[in-house]
Design a protein that fits this description.
The complex is a heterodimer of chains A (112) and B (115). Chain A has 112 residues and is an all-beta fold. Chain A contains no helices and 11 strands. Classes of the chains: A mainly beta (112), B mainly beta (115). Chains A and B meet through strand 4, strand 5, strand 9 and strand 10 of A and strand 5, strand 6, strand 10 and strand 11 of B.
Chain lengths: 112, 115
């Protein structure tokens, strides 16, 4: 069974540009999460989908970030326009049950 | 709100020595506790978790952690480490009774095992 996949693995963009990160959860997992780790700091929660609905988006830093989950399958996280402080590693995770989150390898975003 | 403290950013240790990675949490409600590991160039993997029941939980590769409610701790231990245990370890909590499933992480501890 395939794990959580994320694309791209790395992205380097300039300040002001737009970037879209994609996450494909494990098939059948209703719960999908986005987290972010800024260099040297803790991994922070961004938001949680249950199927296609946003259950908790309390961690989204500002309105430059937009997350969607079309049809309750894959999810995208768009940053528009990107700022320097958006650099970090963005992790996606999925789960069917509480206490069983499976993480993807992450997307390393660098904003220059 | 919950918070997690991992005081040690880096722990160097020799192969076959014991190790303890410390984790303390703060929460006004009951919590679930987790340890995740990130090996170089890989994603996060669940190492072990405490949801309920026995306060001592074990992983398949020899790590164990004990939930201590009075000390609000969930320290990770291994009696004898291997070179392959070199990785970054993250302690995390979630609060099941709040209705929110998000994990709150500590800042991570890099375990460096040398020969």
């Amino acid at each position: 069974e395939a794990g959580v996949t994320q694309f791209p693995s790395h992205s380097v963009i300039e300040k002001g540009q737009t970037v879209t990160l994609r996450c494909d959860p494990i098939s059948g997992h209703d719960n999908l999460y986005w987290y972010r780790r800024v260099m040297g700091k803790e991994i922070k929660f961004l938001l949680h989908f249950v199927k296609e609905s946003k259950q908790d988006e309390s961690g989204m830093p500002n309105n430059r970030f937009l997350a969607e989950r079309t049809g309750g399958t894959y999810s995208t996280l768009k940053v528009q326009p990107a700022e320097l402080e958006d650099s970090g590693v963005y992790f996606c995770a999925s789960s069917q049950d509480w206490g069983e989150e499976f993480f993807g390898p992450g997307t390393r975003l660098t904003v220059l | 709100a919950q918070s997690v403290t991992q005081l040690d950013s880096q722990v160097p240790v020799f192969e076959e020595a014991p190790v303890e990675l410390r984790c303390n949490y703060s929460s006004s409600v009951s919590v679930y506790l987790f340890w995740y590991v990130q090996y170089p160039n890989q994603g996060l993997q669940l190492l072990l978790k405490y949801l309920s029941g026995s306060t001592l939980v074990e992983s398949i590769n020899g790590f164990e952690a004990e939930f201590n409610k009075s000390q609000t701790s969930f320290h990770l231990r291994k009696p004898s480490v291997h070179i392959s245990d070199t990785a970054e370890y993250f302690c995390a909590v979630s609060a099941p009774n709040t209705g929110f499933q998000k994990l709150v992480f500590g800042t991570g501890t890099r375990l460096l095992v040398s020969p």
